[in-house]
Amino acid sequence: MFIGRKLVYLFGLVLIIIFLSAFQTVFWFQLLGQLAPPLLWLCVINYVILARREPQSLVLVYLLAIAASSLSSISIGVFLTVIFIYFWIVVLFKDNFYIESLSYFILLNLGGSFLFHVLFYCTSRLLESNPTQILFFDRLTQVLLTPLFSIPLYWLLKKWEKYTKAPEIYMDTARYEYE
Known about the structure:
The chain has six helices and no strands. By secondary structure, it is an all-alpha fold. The chain is globular and about 45 Å long.
């Protein structure tokens, strides 16, 4: 029964990522024209990084990144490289400064969306023969909209964990008992 709950939780997260990626790549432009969409999938990845310990969250983040990349124009190699670097930077930040709250999650999404764009730009310059452009206003719009949309996503993901009865594993003092 416990494995069934984990599979439902995992399958649900993948569906949430696919839905959010489809919304931001297709439906967003139907509603708001050329306004750059927020990085909705990044909010889910940030939530998983915060809610799980490193080995489990790394596997989940890679699975979710592969699902999100299916609706992205970024090459899979560059995307997974950026996500790998992004993951460890966020984990280092989380290990040193962590507060379980919505405001922390919003702040992480603000800084994380900026960090993602910087990492993507640098990685694209290093690995691709046709690197990405700066697109300052589009990226700035995404950086500013992502934290705004992270608020309802935070509550949605909290409810999803409660519904699937997935154990929340946050940073706490129990983690350091065995070190």
